[in-house]
Amino acid sequence: MADCLFCGIISGEIKGEIVYQDSSVVAFKDINPKAPVHLLIVPRKHIATLLDVEQGDKGLFGDILFAASKLARDHGISEDGFRVVLNCGAGAGQSVFHIHLHLLGGRALRWPPG
Ligand code: 5GP
Ligand code: ZN
User: Fold this and answer.
1) 73: left (phi over 0), alpha (psi -120 to 50) or beta
2) To 10 degrees, the CA torsion angle through 17, 94, 68, 82?
3) Which residue, judged by its Cα, is nearest atom 13 of ligand 1?
4) Mean pLDDT across the chain
């Protein structure tokens, strides 16, 4: 989608530190990390928010979660615990309107989040 930051990173038009990609999912390092490991996991398909997910996207979210599990192992945060976050809407802190999971780990994570 034109003017979408994450579509730009996926296509290579915008620089991103990509750590994983397959036919449906791309993961890259967050530019402003909130933990020692902070990755963003996105579908190649442009979907703005969780509220825009359609019936046909259900399998895609299995792929995204499976990638999160693999990346947690590959980045050494699986044993100590990690967090997966999906902000939906500006009121929850969503600032980029291409749906993404945050994968956070490498430090103690408090609950509940602010
Ligand atoms: P949100 O606030 O929408 O849940 O998360 C958006 C995330 O994208 C933020 O954690 C922010 O640091 C990250 N971000 C914003 N601009 C860029 C960018 O140009 N490159 C990368 N890699 N991450 C970005
Ligand atoms: Zn997009």
Assistant:
1) alpha
2) 100
3) 30
4) 97
Portion of the chain with pLDDT greater than 90, in percent: 96
Tell me the CA–centroid distance for residue 32 and ligand 1, in Å: 7
- Give the span between the Cα atoms of 77 and 23, in whole angstroms: 25
- Pocket-testing residue among 49, 86, 95, 99, ligand 1, by greatest number of atoms within 8 A of Cβ: 95
The pLDDT tens digits for 20-60 are 999 999 999 999 999 999 999 999 999 999 999 999 999 99
Q: What are the residue boundaries of the structural domains of the chain, listed by start?
A: 5-105
What does the pLDDT read at residue 114? Answer: 80
Fold of 5-105: HIT family, subunit A (3.30.428)
Instruction: Return the amino acid letter for 101.
Output: L
Catalytic residue numbers, as ranges: 100
